[in-house]
Amino acid sequence: MGPLDRAGADRSDRTGATWTNWAGDRSCRPRDLVRPGSLRELSEVVAAGAAAGRQITVAGSGHSFSGAAMSDDLMLDVGALSGVIEADRAGGLVRVGGGTVLAELNRELDRLGLAMPNLGDIDRQTIGGAISTATHGTGAELPNLAAQVEAIELLGPDGEVRRLTAGGDPELLRAARVGVGSLGVITAVTLRTVPSFNLHRVDAPMPLDEVLNEFDRLAGENEHFEFFIFPHTETALTIRRNRTERPPAPRGRLERYLSDVVIENGLGNLALKATGKVPTAIPRTARFSSKFMAQAEQVDVSHRVFANYRTIRFTEMEYALPREAAPEALLRVLDLIRTERFPLAMPIECRVVAGDDALLSPTHERASAYLAVHQYHGLVWRPYFEAIERVFDSYRGRPHWGKRHSKDAAALAPLYPEWARFRAARDELDPGRVFSNAYVREVLGP
Fold it and tell me: Which of 120, 190, 209, 416 holds its CA 20 to 30 A away from the CA of 102?
Protein backbone atom coordinates (compact mmCIF):
# COMPACT_ATOMS: atom_id res chain seq x y z
CA MET A 1 0.00 0.00 0.00
CA GLY A 2 1.56 3.33 -1.09
CA PRO A 3 1.28 6.81 0.44
CA LEU A 4 -1.72 7.76 -1.68
CA ASP A 5 -3.53 4.58 -0.66
CA ARG A 6 -2.79 5.15 3.02
CA ALA A 7 -3.92 8.76 2.91
CA GLY A 8 -6.94 7.82 0.89
CA ALA A 9 -7.92 5.08 3.29
CA ASP A 10 -7.74 7.49 6.20
CA ARG A 11 -8.88 10.79 4.76
CA SER A 12 -10.55 10.28 1.40
CA ASP A 13 -14.02 9.42 0.26
CA ARG A 14 -13.35 6.85 -2.46
CA THR A 15 -17.01 6.22 -3.26
CA GLY A 16 -17.32 9.01 -5.81
CA ALA A 17 -18.67 11.66 -3.45
CA THR A 18 -19.75 14.86 -5.15
CA TRP A 19 -17.89 18.09 -4.33
CA THR A 20 -19.91 21.30 -4.73
CA ASN A 21 -18.82 24.92 -4.61
CA TRP A 22 -20.26 27.63 -2.34
CA ALA A 23 -22.72 28.85 -4.95
CA GLY A 24 -24.05 25.35 -5.55
CA ASP A 25 -23.72 25.73 -9.33
CA ARG A 26 -20.44 23.86 -9.80
CA SER A 27 -19.96 20.23 -8.84
CA CYS A 28 -17.59 17.42 -9.67
CA ARG A 29 -16.86 13.85 -8.64
CA PRO A 30 -13.12 13.53 -8.08
CA ARG A 31 -11.68 10.04 -8.22
CA ASP A 32 -10.08 10.78 -4.84
CA LEU A 33 -10.72 13.59 -2.39
CA VAL A 34 -7.83 13.55 0.08
CA ARG A 35 -7.52 15.62 3.25
CA PRO A 36 -3.93 15.24 4.47
CA GLY A 37 -3.54 15.85 8.18
CA SER A 38 0.00 17.25 7.98
CA LEU A 39 2.55 18.66 5.59
CA ARG A 40 4.34 15.31 5.60
CA GLU A 41 1.18 13.48 4.55
CA LEU A 42 0.51 16.08 1.88
CA SER A 43 4.02 15.68 0.47
CA GLU A 44 3.61 11.90 0.30
CA VAL A 45 0.25 12.15 -1.43
CA VAL A 46 1.46 14.67 -4.02
CA ALA A 47 4.65 12.76 -4.81
CA ALA A 48 2.76 9.49 -5.15
CA GLY A 49 0.05 11.10 -7.28
CA ALA A 50 2.57 12.76 -9.58
CA ALA A 51 4.49 9.49 -10.00
CA ALA A 52 1.25 7.76 -10.94
CA GLY A 53 0.42 10.37 -13.59
CA ARG A 54 -2.46 11.89 -11.63
CA GLN A 55 -3.86 15.39 -12.20
CA ILE A 56 -3.88 17.27 -8.88
CA THR A 57 -6.18 20.12 -7.88
CA VAL A 58 -6.53 21.98 -4.56
CA ALA A 59 -10.12 22.71 -3.62
CA GLY A 60 -9.71 25.70 -1.29
CA SER A 61 -13.04 26.68 0.26
CA GLY A 62 -14.97 26.38 -3.00
CA HIS A 63 -15.75 30.08 -3.34
CA SER A 64 -14.79 30.26 -7.01
CA PHE A 65 -17.48 30.56 -9.67
CA SER A 66 -15.04 29.42 -12.35
CA GLY A 67 -13.80 25.87 -12.78
CA ALA A 68 -10.51 26.60 -10.99
CA ALA A 69 -11.08 24.01 -8.25
CA MET A 70 -12.88 21.34 -10.26
CA SER A 71 -11.40 17.85 -10.56
CA ASP A 72 -12.21 14.43 -11.94
CA ASP A 73 -8.98 12.97 -10.60
CA LEU A 74 -7.13 13.83 -7.36
CA MET A 75 -8.58 16.70 -5.32
CA LEU A 76 -6.79 17.94 -2.20
CA ASP A 77 -8.27 19.70 0.80
CA VAL A 78 -5.41 21.38 2.71
CA GLY A 79 -7.56 22.73 5.52
CA ALA A 80 -5.27 21.06 8.05
CA LEU A 81 -2.51 23.49 7.04
CA SER A 82 -4.21 26.34 8.80
CA GLY A 83 -3.51 29.15 11.23
CA VAL A 84 -0.69 31.52 12.05
CA ILE A 85 2.63 29.67 12.12
CA GLU A 86 4.81 32.56 13.23
CA ALA A 87 4.46 36.32 13.51
CA ASP A 88 6.83 39.25 13.72
CA ARG A 89 4.58 41.76 15.42
CA ALA A 90 7.13 44.56 15.17
CA GLY A 91 7.90 44.04 11.50
CA GLY A 92 4.38 42.97 10.50
CA LEU A 93 5.41 39.80 8.65
CA VAL A 94 3.14 36.86 9.42
CA ARG A 95 3.53 33.30 8.13
CA VAL A 96 0.26 31.38 7.80
CA GLY A 97 -0.82 27.99 6.51
CA GLY A 98 -2.08 27.95 2.92
CA GLY A 99 -5.40 26.43 3.99
CA THR A 100 -6.22 29.23 6.44
CA VAL A 101 -9.70 30.68 5.90
CA LEU A 102 -9.61 34.47 5.79
CA ALA A 103 -12.20 34.86 8.56
CA GLU A 104 -10.03 32.86 10.95
CA LEU A 105 -6.88 34.63 9.77
CA ASN A 106 -8.49 37.98 10.54
CA ARG A 107 -9.40 36.89 14.06
CA GLU A 108 -5.90 35.57 14.73
CA LEU A 109 -4.28 38.73 13.42
CA ASP A 110 -6.62 40.80 15.56
CA ARG A 111 -5.43 38.95 18.66
CA LEU A 112 -1.87 39.84 17.66
CA GLY A 113 -2.74 43.51 17.19
CA LEU A 114 -2.30 43.19 13.42
CA ALA A 115 -4.52 43.38 10.34
CA MET A 116 -4.55 42.95 6.60
CA PRO A 117 -4.33 46.42 4.99
CA ASN A 118 -7.16 45.56 2.60
CA LEU A 119 -9.72 42.77 2.20
CA GLY A 120 -12.59 41.83 -0.04
CA ASP A 121 -16.19 41.78 1.12
CA ILE A 122 -16.20 37.98 1.51
CA ASP A 123 -14.00 36.26 4.10
CA ARG A 124 -14.79 32.59 3.46
CA GLN A 125 -11.92 31.88 1.02
CA THR A 126 -8.66 30.26 2.00
CA ILE A 127 -5.59 32.47 1.73
CA GLY A 128 -4.10 30.08 -0.85
CA GLY A 129 -7.21 30.23 -3.02
CA ALA A 130 -7.64 33.99 -2.58
CA ILE A 131 -4.18 34.89 -3.81
CA SER A 132 -4.19 32.25 -6.57
CA THR A 133 -7.20 33.91 -8.19
CA ALA A 134 -6.18 37.52 -7.42
CA THR A 135 -9.02 38.17 -5.00
CA HIS A 136 -9.20 41.88 -4.18
CA GLY A 137 -10.89 44.52 -2.12
CA THR A 138 -11.31 48.15 -3.10
CA GLY A 139 -9.04 51.18 -2.82
CA ALA A 140 -7.40 53.37 -5.45
CA GLU A 141 -4.02 53.06 -3.72
CA LEU A 142 -4.40 49.45 -2.59
CA PRO A 143 -3.56 46.40 -4.74
CA ASN A 144 -5.10 42.93 -4.46
CA LEU A 145 -4.40 40.46 -1.66
CA ALA A 146 -1.66 38.68 -3.63
CA ALA A 147 0.40 41.88 -3.63
CA GLN A 148 0.65 41.61 0.17
CA VAL A 149 2.59 38.34 -0.16
CA GLU A 150 6.28 38.44 0.80
CA ALA A 151 6.98 34.72 0.34
CA ILE A 152 5.20 31.56 -0.79
CA GLU A 153 6.01 28.00 0.18
CA LEU A 154 5.10 25.84 -2.80
CA LEU A 155 4.98 22.06 -2.78
CA GLY A 156 6.00 20.69 -6.17
CA PRO A 157 5.33 17.41 -7.99
CA ASP A 158 8.36 15.82 -6.31
CA GLY A 159 6.76 16.32 -2.88
CA GLU A 160 9.37 18.91 -1.89
CA VAL A 161 8.56 22.41 -0.64
CA ARG A 162 10.27 25.36 -2.30
CA ARG A 163 10.22 28.77 -0.62
CA LEU A 164 9.87 31.59 -3.14
CA THR A 165 10.99 35.07 -2.10
CA ALA A 166 11.61 38.38 -3.81
CA GLY A 167 15.27 38.14 -2.86
CA GLY A 168 15.83 34.59 -4.01
CA ASP A 169 13.29 33.88 -6.76
CA PRO A 170 11.70 37.17 -7.80
CA GLU A 171 10.36 35.92 -11.14
CA LEU A 172 8.92 32.73 -9.67
CA LEU A 173 7.31 34.65 -6.81
CA ARG A 174 5.67 37.04 -9.27
CA ALA A 175 4.28 33.98 -11.05
CA ALA A 176 3.17 32.13 -7.92
CA ARG A 177 1.40 35.09 -6.34
CA VAL A 178 -1.39 34.59 -8.91
CA GLY A 179 -0.83 31.05 -10.15
CA VAL A 180 -4.43 29.86 -10.71
CA GLY A 181 -3.48 26.61 -8.95
CA SER A 182 -1.17 25.58 -11.78
CA LEU A 183 2.26 25.75 -10.13
CA GLY A 184 1.96 23.54 -7.05
CA VAL A 185 0.29 23.38 -3.66
CA ILE A 186 0.60 26.53 -1.54
CA THR A 187 1.49 25.19 1.90
CA ALA A 188 2.30 28.50 3.59
CA VAL A 189 2.30 32.22 2.81
CA THR A 190 4.20 35.07 4.44
CA LEU A 191 2.04 38.19 4.46
CA ARG A 192 2.86 41.83 5.02
CA THR A 193 0.40 43.07 7.64
CA VAL A 194 -0.15 46.40 9.41
CA PRO A 195 -1.06 47.38 12.98
CA SER A 196 -4.74 46.80 13.64
CA PHE A 197 -7.03 49.73 12.84
CA ASN A 198 -10.64 50.79 12.90
CA LEU A 199 -12.69 51.73 9.87
CA HIS A 200 -15.52 54.22 9.57
CA ARG A 201 -18.03 52.95 7.00
CA VAL A 202 -20.63 55.26 5.47
CA ASP A 203 -23.35 53.93 3.14
CA ALA A 204 -25.04 56.68 1.15
CA PRO A 205 -27.45 56.56 -1.81
CA MET A 206 -26.50 58.94 -4.61
CA PRO A 207 -27.82 59.61 -8.12
CA LEU A 208 -25.87 57.42 -10.52
CA ASP A 209 -24.93 60.29 -12.82
CA GLU A 210 -23.44 62.15 -9.86
CA VAL A 211 -21.42 59.09 -8.82
CA LEU A 212 -20.04 58.64 -12.34
CA ASN A 213 -19.30 62.34 -12.82
CA GLU A 214 -17.44 62.37 -9.49
CA PHE A 215 -15.96 58.89 -9.84
CA ASP A 216 -12.29 59.95 -9.80
CA ARG A 217 -12.79 62.24 -6.83
CA LEU A 218 -14.74 59.68 -4.81
CA ALA A 219 -12.20 56.95 -5.54
CA GLY A 220 -9.30 59.26 -4.74
CA GLU A 221 -10.46 60.85 -1.50
CA ASN A 222 -11.62 57.62 0.18
CA GLU A 223 -9.28 54.82 1.20
CA HIS A 224 -11.87 52.24 0.16
CA PHE A 225 -14.66 53.23 -2.24
CA GLU A 226 -17.23 51.16 -4.09
CA PHE A 227 -20.80 51.39 -5.26
CA PHE A 228 -23.72 49.20 -6.33
CA ILE A 229 -26.44 49.94 -8.87
CA PHE A 230 -29.54 47.89 -9.67
CA PRO A 231 -30.28 47.62 -13.40
CA HIS A 232 -33.30 49.74 -14.40
CA THR A 233 -32.66 52.28 -11.61
CA GLU A 234 -30.87 55.61 -11.34
CA THR A 235 -29.73 55.53 -7.71
CA ALA A 236 -26.46 53.95 -6.60
CA LEU A 237 -25.49 52.89 -3.11
CA THR A 238 -22.02 54.26 -2.39
CA ILE A 239 -19.87 52.67 0.33
CA ARG A 240 -16.92 54.59 1.78
CA ARG A 241 -14.56 53.08 4.32
CA ASN A 242 -11.81 55.16 5.89
CA ARG A 243 -9.46 54.72 8.82
CA THR A 244 -10.47 56.44 12.00
CA GLU A 245 -9.20 56.96 15.53
CA ARG A 246 -12.75 56.78 16.81
CA PRO A 247 -13.49 53.82 19.10
CA PRO A 248 -15.59 50.95 17.74
CA ALA A 249 -19.33 51.63 17.61
CA PRO A 250 -20.62 48.47 15.94
CA ARG A 251 -24.23 47.97 15.03
CA GLY A 252 -26.34 46.35 17.69
CA ARG A 253 -27.29 42.69 17.42
CA LEU A 254 -30.93 43.48 16.58
CA GLU A 255 -29.95 46.05 13.94
CA ARG A 256 -27.51 43.59 12.34
CA TYR A 257 -30.14 40.86 12.34
CA LEU A 258 -32.85 43.03 10.80
CA SER A 259 -30.57 44.60 8.19
CA ASP A 260 -28.39 41.64 7.17
CA VAL A 261 -30.55 38.60 7.84
CA VAL A 262 -34.14 39.77 7.45
CA ILE A 263 -33.98 42.55 4.84
CA GLU A 264 -30.84 42.13 2.71
CA ASN A 265 -30.69 38.34 2.61
CA GLY A 266 -34.17 37.18 3.64
CA LEU A 267 -36.43 39.59 1.76
CA GLY A 268 -33.80 39.96 -0.94
CA ASN A 269 -33.82 36.24 -1.55
CA LEU A 270 -37.61 36.15 -1.76
CA ALA A 271 -37.62 39.04 -4.24
CA LEU A 272 -35.04 37.32 -6.44
CA LYS A 273 -37.00 34.08 -6.41
CA ALA A 274 -40.09 35.97 -7.51
CA THR A 275 -38.31 37.73 -10.37
CA GLY A 276 -36.92 34.40 -11.51
CA LYS A 277 -40.48 33.20 -12.02
CA VAL A 278 -41.71 36.48 -13.52
CA PRO A 279 -38.77 38.18 -15.32
CA THR A 280 -40.97 40.98 -16.60
CA ALA A 281 -41.28 42.17 -13.00
CA ILE A 282 -37.54 42.82 -12.69
CA PRO A 283 -37.55 46.57 -13.51
CA ARG A 284 -40.37 47.22 -11.04
CA THR A 285 -38.77 45.02 -8.37
CA ALA A 286 -35.39 46.72 -8.87
CA ARG A 287 -36.92 50.15 -8.38
CA PHE A 288 -38.70 48.88 -5.26
CA SER A 289 -35.48 47.31 -3.90
CA SER A 290 -33.54 50.53 -4.45
CA LYS A 291 -35.90 52.24 -2.00
CA PHE A 292 -34.32 50.18 0.78
CA MET A 293 -31.00 51.94 0.19
CA ALA A 294 -30.50 54.18 3.17
CA GLN A 295 -27.88 56.33 4.83
CA ALA A 296 -26.02 54.29 7.43
CA GLU A 297 -22.69 54.27 9.19
CA GLN A 298 -20.63 52.22 11.59
CA VAL A 299 -17.19 52.18 13.19
CA ASP A 300 -15.56 48.88 13.97
CA VAL A 301 -12.39 46.82 13.72
CA SER A 302 -11.33 46.75 10.06
CA HIS A 303 -12.01 43.11 9.22
CA ARG A 304 -15.57 43.33 10.57
CA VAL A 305 -16.24 46.39 8.41
CA PHE A 306 -14.77 44.82 5.27
CA ALA A 307 -16.76 41.57 5.38
CA ASN A 308 -20.45 41.27 4.55
CA TYR A 309 -22.93 38.64 5.67
CA ARG A 310 -24.30 36.77 2.66
CA THR A 311 -26.60 33.79 2.31
CA ILE A 312 -28.09 34.53 -1.12
CA ARG A 313 -26.54 32.19 -3.68
CA PHE A 314 -25.61 33.50 -7.12
CA THR A 315 -23.06 33.19 -9.89
CA GLU A 316 -20.84 36.07 -10.93
CA MET A 317 -18.67 37.50 -13.69
CA GLU A 318 -16.15 40.23 -12.87
CA TYR A 319 -13.69 42.05 -15.12
CA ALA A 320 -10.81 44.43 -14.38
CA LEU A 321 -10.92 47.41 -16.75
CA PRO A 322 -8.65 50.44 -17.03
CA ARG A 323 -9.92 52.63 -14.20
CA GLU A 324 -10.74 55.58 -16.45
CA ALA A 325 -13.03 53.37 -18.57
CA ALA A 326 -15.32 52.29 -15.73
CA PRO A 327 -18.04 55.00 -15.92
CA GLU A 328 -18.54 54.63 -19.67
CA ALA A 329 -18.40 50.82 -19.52
CA LEU A 330 -20.96 50.69 -16.72
CA LEU A 331 -23.40 52.90 -18.63
CA ARG A 332 -23.02 50.66 -21.68
CA VAL A 333 -23.73 47.56 -19.59
CA LEU A 334 -26.81 49.11 -17.98
CA ASP A 335 -28.08 50.23 -21.39
CA LEU A 336 -27.51 46.74 -22.81
CA ILE A 337 -29.45 45.11 -19.96
CA ARG A 338 -32.30 47.55 -20.40
CA THR A 339 -32.61 47.53 -24.20
CA GLU A 340 -32.14 43.76 -24.56
CA ARG A 341 -34.33 43.06 -21.53
CA PHE A 342 -31.80 40.80 -19.88
CA PRO A 343 -33.37 39.17 -16.80
CA LEU A 344 -30.64 40.28 -14.40
CA ALA A 345 -32.09 41.50 -11.12
CA MET A 346 -29.02 41.62 -8.88
CA PRO A 347 -26.97 44.81 -8.52
CA ILE A 348 -23.80 45.57 -10.47
CA GLU A 349 -20.77 46.33 -8.31
CA CYS A 350 -17.88 48.69 -9.06
CA ARG A 351 -14.61 48.70 -7.10
CA VAL A 352 -11.21 50.29 -7.68
CA VAL A 353 -7.84 48.56 -7.29
CA ALA A 354 -4.22 49.68 -7.71
CA GLY A 355 -1.96 47.97 -10.20
CA ASP A 356 0.64 45.38 -9.18
CA ASP A 357 3.38 43.30 -10.77
CA ALA A 358 2.16 39.68 -10.47
CA LEU A 359 2.50 38.16 -13.93
CA LEU A 360 -1.13 37.03 -14.22
CA SER A 361 -2.80 39.61 -12.03
CA PRO A 362 -5.85 41.12 -13.79
CA THR A 363 -4.55 44.46 -12.51
CA HIS A 364 -1.03 43.84 -13.83
CA GLU A 365 0.70 47.21 -14.18
CA ARG A 366 -2.67 48.94 -14.56
CA ALA A 367 -4.79 51.02 -12.21
CA SER A 368 -8.13 49.29 -12.55
CA ALA A 369 -11.81 49.29 -11.80
CA TYR A 370 -13.62 46.00 -11.41
CA LEU A 371 -17.17 45.69 -12.69
CA ALA A 372 -19.10 42.65 -11.45
CA VAL A 373 -22.43 41.32 -12.70
CA HIS A 374 -24.43 38.64 -10.91
CA GLN A 375 -27.22 36.19 -11.64
CA TYR A 376 -29.39 34.49 -9.03
CA HIS A 377 -28.59 30.80 -8.65
CA GLY A 378 -30.52 28.40 -10.83
CA LEU A 379 -31.31 30.99 -13.51
CA VAL A 380 -29.84 31.23 -17.00
CA TRP A 381 -26.71 33.39 -17.02
CA ARG A 382 -24.48 32.45 -19.96
CA PRO A 383 -26.00 34.41 -22.89
CA TYR A 384 -26.32 37.57 -20.78
CA PHE A 385 -22.84 37.36 -19.29
CA GLU A 386 -21.29 36.71 -22.70
CA ALA A 387 -23.04 39.72 -24.22
CA ILE A 388 -21.81 41.93 -21.37
CA GLU A 389 -18.37 40.37 -21.70
CA ARG A 390 -18.14 41.80 -25.21
CA VAL A 391 -18.48 45.27 -23.71
CA PHE A 392 -15.62 44.51 -21.33
CA ASP A 393 -13.57 43.15 -24.23
CA SER A 394 -13.74 46.50 -26.00
CA TYR A 395 -11.68 47.97 -23.13
CA ARG A 396 -9.19 45.08 -23.06
CA GLY A 397 -10.70 43.92 -19.81
CA ARG A 398 -9.16 41.00 -17.92
CA PRO A 399 -11.43 38.48 -16.17
CA HIS A 400 -11.20 37.57 -12.52
CA TRP A 401 -9.66 34.07 -12.43
CA GLY A 402 -12.18 32.79 -9.91
CA LYS A 403 -15.32 34.00 -11.66
CA ARG A 404 -17.30 33.27 -14.81
CA HIS A 405 -15.84 34.17 -18.18
CA SER A 406 -15.54 32.60 -21.63
CA LYS A 407 -11.85 33.30 -22.37
CA ASP A 408 -9.33 30.65 -23.38
CA ALA A 409 -5.54 30.88 -23.43
CA ALA A 410 -5.44 32.25 -27.00
CA ALA A 411 -7.71 35.15 -26.01
CA LEU A 412 -6.03 35.79 -22.66
CA ALA A 413 -2.38 35.77 -23.72
CA PRO A 414 -2.50 39.13 -25.59
CA LEU A 415 -3.97 40.79 -22.49
CA TYR A 416 -0.95 39.96 -20.33
CA PRO A 417 2.42 41.54 -21.31
CA GLU A 418 4.37 38.91 -19.33
CA TRP A 419 2.38 35.84 -20.36
CA ALA A 420 5.53 34.15 -21.75
CA ARG A 421 7.33 34.64 -18.44
CA PHE A 422 4.51 32.89 -16.61
CA ARG A 423 4.74 29.96 -19.02
CA ALA A 424 8.48 29.79 -18.35
CA ALA A 425 7.84 29.72 -14.60
CA ARG A 426 5.26 26.98 -15.08
CA ASP A 427 7.72 24.97 -17.18
CA GLU A 428 10.24 25.22 -14.34
CA LEU A 429 7.91 24.49 -11.42
CA ASP A 430 5.59 21.92 -13.01
CA PRO A 431 7.02 20.71 -16.32
CA GLY A 432 4.83 17.60 -16.29
CA ARG A 433 1.64 19.64 -15.77
CA VAL A 434 0.67 17.66 -12.68
CA PHE A 435 -1.24 20.59 -11.18
CA SER A 436 -3.92 20.94 -13.80
CA ASN A 437 -7.57 20.41 -14.63
CA ALA A 438 -9.91 21.30 -17.47
CA TYR A 439 -10.07 24.96 -16.44
CA VAL A 440 -6.30 25.37 -16.19
CA ARG A 441 -5.80 23.72 -19.58
CA GLU A 442 -8.40 26.00 -21.12
CA VAL A 443 -7.17 29.31 -19.70
CA LEU A 444 -3.41 28.67 -19.54
CA GLY A 445 -2.94 26.16 -22.32
CA PRO A 446 -1.23 22.77 -22.21
Answer: 416
| Residue-wise pLDDT tens digits, 48-97 | 999 999 999 999 899 999 999 999 999 999 999 999 999 999 999 999 99
CA distance readout (Å), 309 to 16, 154, 203: 32, 32, 16
Measure the CA dihedral 330/336/341/342, to 10°: -60
Tell me the percentage of the chain whose pLDDT exceeds 90. Answer: 82
What residues contact residue 335 under an 8 Å CB cut-off, 6+ apart? none
Q: What are the φ and ψ backbone dihedral angles of 132, each rounded to 5 degrees?
A: -65, -30
Q: What is the pLDDT of residue 284?
A: 86
Q: Residue 238: what residue type?
A: T
Dihedral pair phi/psi, residue 105, rounded to 5°: -60, -45
pLDDT tens track for 296-317: 899 999 999 999 878 889 999 9
Contact by Cβ (8 Å): 61, 129: yes
Contacts of 241 (CB under 8 A, 6+ apart): 199, 200, 201, 202, 222, 223, 224, 225, 305, 306
Give the CA distances from residue 277 to residues 202, 232, 283, 346, 373, in Å, rounded to whole numbers and listed in that order: 34, 18, 14, 15, 20
- Coarse DSSP helix, strand, coil percentages of the chain, rounded to the nearest 5 percent: 35, 25, 40
Model-level pTM greater than 0.85? yes
Which phi and psi (to 5°) does residue 295 adopt? -65, 130
Q: What are phi and psi of 17, to 5 degrees?
A: -60, 145
Q: What per-residue confidence (pLDDT) applies to 1?
A: 37
Indicate the domain borders of the chain. Answer: 84-195
CB 201 within 8 A of CB 222: no
Residues in the chain: 446
What is the number of other CB atoms lying within 10 angstroms of the CB of residue 162?
A: 18
